[in-house]
Design a protein that fits this description.
Strand order of the largest sheet: 1-2-4-3
Structural class: mainly alpha
Largest sheet: 4 strands, mixed
Number of domains: 3
Number of strands: 4
Shape: elongated
Distance between the termini: 60 Å
Order of helices and strands: HHHHHHHHHEHEEEHHHHHHHHHHH
């Protein structure tokens, strides 16, 4: 009996073993992948290396989450581990929720950290190792850490036992603290560094954008520029609030005609209401888990909730990408009608691919999981609309590869200052920050003081 009991107690280690093996294989494979990527920098196209890196990260991330969560549901390894170490209800809940969510997060964070040499050399970003490591770790746990703490606390509170109330409340407080620390200590700083918008209130760019908006029949409210030169991101966005968002990296490397063509494309998105459709699609992401959650009379297993969320996320993403590609094709054709410059739009698409280090031609499988059609297909559609021959198209593309400096729109002084670190004392970003502070103070006075006085 003693030997049988000892064998049963030692058998718990077989359940966590596949998870340790999964983590080891993922880390070892990516170590070799990144080493090969660095070796091939001199001989292969940088865009192909960068896109291959992004694709590998996406595939492994999806596979890791599904295998990890599916394995937790099938093997329930953390319960066996908690029983082997006699951790009790508190230890079991904390171990189960923590390892279920933080396990994949930390593995992917380690992979992100290993990618730093590739990012540094291929993308040539001016980011320190320390900064990149912090962003990699916090970027992976900013949501999973608070959720795992909250789940543990709610699970313990639902049991209704007096001795578990303090532990449950403690985990809820820990979840709240981790949420605020990560949100305001890291995420807010990160967004401020990368996505601080600066309003364009005057100048040739603003005048031209509003002129194109009038042609498109779109009531535009504002234009913002993001200082993204450090991150080398060239892009433009249309928001549901009828605002146009541009990055300074785009404005620095595209001619005026090309910027106008890109703006026409974004105005076409606004005209056809594409942004609102995408927003409603992602609202579906939360409907299925909420319906399932409301139909149960007990607190659900965290692994089940996470697995359902991951599956819904990828299903909705697949549907959203399918709709997005359709919207992009529509906006391409409508945008050319607005800017009336198909040649500039073709060269703009080519230049954007070069700036963002993305391949111009995608395989069918790769194209099925991205938000935009292959640039080559988009150019072909514009060429058909404009009756361009392939010789004309190839000549346009060739001019982008060989050209030097182009005269574009002059950046707003506040964006130039933000890029060089000499922002004015009372910039639009500071105005927005002060406005938010007054808003939170006002909300606290109205909502926080009366309850405290009544208590």
């Amino acid at each position: 009996m003693g030997l049988d009991h000892a064998m049963q107690q030692s058998g718990w280690i077989l359940r966590p073993l596949p998870f340790a093996l999964l983590a080891t294989v993922a880390l070892a494979w990516f170590r070799r992948f990144f080493d090969n990527a660095l070796v091939s920098v001199e001989s292969k196209d940088a865009a192909a290396i960068w896109y291959g890196t992004l694709r590998a990260l996406k595939i492994v991330s999806t596979t890791l989450w599904l295998l990890w969560l599916g394995g937790v549901l099938a093997l329930d390894p953390w319960q066996a581990t908690a029983n082997a170490f006699h951790l009790g209800l508190v230890g079991h809940a904390a171990l189960h929720n923590g390892l279920t969510l933080l396990g994949p997060s930390l593995i992917l964070a380690a992979i992100d950290v290993m990618s730093y040499p590739v990012v540094r050399r291929v993308r040539q970003l001016d980011i320190t190792q320390r900064e990149y490591t912090c962003d990699s770790i916090f970027g992976r746990i900013w949501l999973t850490l608070p959720v795992s703490c909250f789940s543990t606390g709610f699970q313990l509170l639902q049991l209704g036992r007096d001795r578990l109330l303090i532990a449950g409340m403690g985990f809820c407080v820990l979840g709240l603290l981790s949420f605020f620390l990560l949100q305001f200590g890291w995420l807010r700083r990160k967004l401020k560094a990368q996505f601080t918008p600066h309003a364009v209130t005057f100048g040739a760019l603003r005048d031209r954008v509003f002129a194109l908006a009038e042609i498109a029949g779109v009531k535009l409210t504002q234009i913002y520029v993001f200082p993204m030169s450090r991150w080398r991101l060239a892009n433009a966005y249309a928001s549901e609030e009828k605002t146009l968002l541009l990055t300074d990296w785009l404005l620095r490397h595209l001619s005026r005609r090309e910027v106008d063509a890109v703006i026409g494309h974004e105005l076409a998105h606004m005209k056809k209401g594409h942004v609102a459709v995408q927003g409603w699609l992602f609202a579906l992401l939360f409907i299925a888990p909420l319906i399932w959650f409301r139909s149960r009379n007990e607190f659900p297993n965290m692994a089940t909730v996470a697995f359902l969320f991951v599956v819904c996320w990828h299903l909705i993403s697949f549907l959203s990408n399918l709709v997005s590609r359709k919207h992009e094709r529509q906006a391409d054709l409508e945008g050319v009608q607005i800017s009336k410059d198909p040649e500039a739009f073709i060269t703009a698409l080519t230049q954007l691919d070069r700036l963002n280090m993305m391949p111009g031609d995608l395989e069918t499988l790769d194209e099925s999981v991205v938000t935009h059609p292959s640039t080559r297909k988009r150019i072909a559609a514009i060429a058909r609309l404009s009756n361009f021959s392939w010789e004309q198209v190839n000549n346009l593309v060739a001019t982008v590869r060989t050209r030097g400096f182009v005269q574009g729109y002059e950046l707003p002084p506040v964006v130039e200052a933000a890029t060089t670190g000499t922002s004015p004392l009372f910039s639009s970003a500071l105005k927005r920050q002060i406005s938010l502070r007054f808003t939170f103070a006002y909300m606290f006075v109205l909502g926080g003081i009366p309850p405290s006085v009544c208590i």
